[in-house]
Amino acid sequence: xxxxxxxxxxxxxxxxxxxxxxxxxxxxxxxxxxxxxxxxxxxxxxxxxxxxxxxxxxxxxxxxxxxxxxxxxxxxxxxxxxxxxxxxxxxxxxxxxxxxxxxxxxxxxxxxxxxxxxxxxxxxxxxxxxxxxxxxxxxxxxxxxxxxxxxxxxxxxxxxxxxxxxxxxxxxxxxxxxxxxxxxxxxxxxxxxxxxxxxxxxxxxxxxxxxxxxxxxxxxxxxxxxxxxxxxxxxxxxxxxxxxxxxxxxxxxxxxxxxxxxxxxxxxxxxxxxxxxxxxxxxxxxxxxxxxxxxxxxxxxxxxxxxxxxxxxxxxxxxxxxxxxxxxxxxxxxxxxxxxxxxxxxxxxxxxxxxxxxxxxxxxxxxxxxxxxxxxxxxxxxxxxxxxxxxxxxxxxxxxxxxxxxxxxxxxxxxxxxxxxxxxxxxxxxxxxxxxxxxxxxxxxxxxxxxxxxxxxxxxxxxxxxxxxxxxxxxxxxxxxxxxxxxxxxxxxxxxxxxxxxxxxxxxxxxxxxxxxxxxxxxxxxxx
Length: 528
Known about the structure:
The protein is α/β, with parallel strands linked by helices. It has three domains: about 5-105 and about 175-435, TIM Barrel, CATH 3.20.20; about 110-160, Oligo-1,6-glucosidase, domain 2, CATH 3.90.400.10; about 455-525, Golgi alpha-mannosidase II (Immunoglobulin-like, Sandwich). It is about 25% helix and about 15% strand. The chain is built from 16 helices and 19 strands. The strands form four sheets. An eight-stranded parallel sheet has the order 9-8-7-3-2-1-11-10. A five-stranded antiparallel sheet has the order 12-13-14-19-16. A three-stranded antiparallel sheet has the order 4-6-5, with no helix packed on it. The chain is globular.
């Protein structure tokens, strides 16, 4: 088995605008994160992933970058960043940055040069295309933020490609100068002490060089899907060149000791496993979004998890995600009880869990009035409920006026229940989300079976209950989850089992000889 350091680490995603404001402008910053590192250490976090902190006009809140080698003043400066890394490393917390290679801001100096003239040396750093017909896009490619992926630029009367917002022109990864510049950008941050990267939209770097129209999607339903889903993206997604570029990214990672990269790639079981085999190194993993994309029932989750763990095998390690800055919060999607059981699964499965800030409090989506909507997706497609603002609400530290996040009104509204769901209140409640997470993380770190053991599937003869065993030498840990909203009973595998944790945090009863009784949506951890 290869070195598995990153396979056992717990990674915590911070959306910097929303974590902690240190200068009372209503926006989170690096000093705020630094001030809360002790909280994360106490929680049991091993690494932090920071969403983008680069200079940006903020049309897409940092994913439209105007300088890859600096920090936006709203978050601080490079000195603040260096101090954050130093403090984190002093308490054994790693720092991952968001690497956004597909596109820049249209205010980036590279694009300003590129659009200035067809003869400019940086013209080919982006994807430009003329059109045979006046005022008609070069082909039918669509933007994930709505409408055509092409924007006519009047300076040269050609179109530039933007897979996302019109303010985010796509870089041309077929240009070797772009490749070298971006690889050196990675080295810049790694040399500064960064421990690795989450690679944004890693599956779309390369596009069809022949610019062929994409075929229609026969399963598209306008009332349920974004317009982007009306096409099958066979010429703009997961081209073979893209996969090979991930290997080059990982080669840069491996120029440094104990570094890591995780890639945002939305795909299915066998494709995920193929990525492990293509890159073939313990410093790499693709995201696995099964808890988000697969129906929340015992049958579907068991089918995926049993197969996935088996295919990944001991050589690599899975990743597990309950939510992030682009997806509704888990407690909103499933409700509090099921969200607690989801946390139990995430933190007991083999591999790397990614905790989105506030999940450990049971935070839910915030209600954002129409006049306060900021997300460009929501603004571009007002007739659809596709906005991402609700899952980006401010972290809830206490029950004061602005939840201890800031001394002034935050950039997004607060969750309505923040006076109950906050760090200060939950610390003192033995049954809280926060104390459940602390207990789960403690068990994960202190039971060798949960930290390093193999995954053993089980058939519990109850369609509503999912379970598995983690085993290391003679230590066995049994994990059981009731996926239904009703009481359930399940037979236990042979063994002298005793309960050590319930997601209810209030009972250790229920084992009756060879069976166990669950409350609705309850999960258990047992040992032999």
